[in-house]
Amino acid sequence: MRWVRPSELPTMVANRYVRRLVASNEAAVRQARQLPRRAIARVRIARTQTASNTAPDRLGGIGQ
């Protein structure tokens, strides 16, 4: 236990809660920024690109 001036007691007690509030707010902001990025990345992974035509044409070439 540590001695604290009575005038500084409310500040010391409030600082502890303010730090927690700021940390939780920062975590929420980080998470809110990451969720759209993750969703976009997952959508891109889920979509397959259409394959190009690789079947030989009449002249023996590939695709048209």
Automatic annotation (TrEMBL):
Q: Which organism is it from?
A: Nocardioides panzhihuensis
Q: Which domain of life is it from?
A: Bacteria
Q: What is this protein called?
A: Uncharacterized protein
